[in-house]
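Project standup — Tuesday

K.O.: blocked on the structure for the chain from last sprint. Re-posting the sequence here as requested.
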Amino acid sequence: MARKVIDEPSEEIVADAKRERAARRNPFARIALFIRQVIGELKKVVTPTRKELFTFTGVVLVFVVIMMAIVWGMDQVFSWLVIFVFGQPGV
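H.V.: unblocked you, prediction finished:
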């Protein structure tokens, strides 16, 4: 089961952002702040375990197969309907 993650920026990042915004520093300082914030957010990323990864992959594959079946079925019905309404091609 996936671990619970709180998606809120840390107080330190918020304080740094407010301080930087108030100072209105040059573009290079803003880029440095952005990179620090990106690194701070990347530290929050939780990689799935091997079991979770296989589970997620299986769910996605099953969903794709079901959607393919639905689209194939609709294609068959519409092609039958077109042939019924307009007749066989070349006849």
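K.O.: great, moving the ticket to review. Residues 3 and 46 are 8 Å apart (CA to CA). DSSP finds three helices and no strands in the chain.
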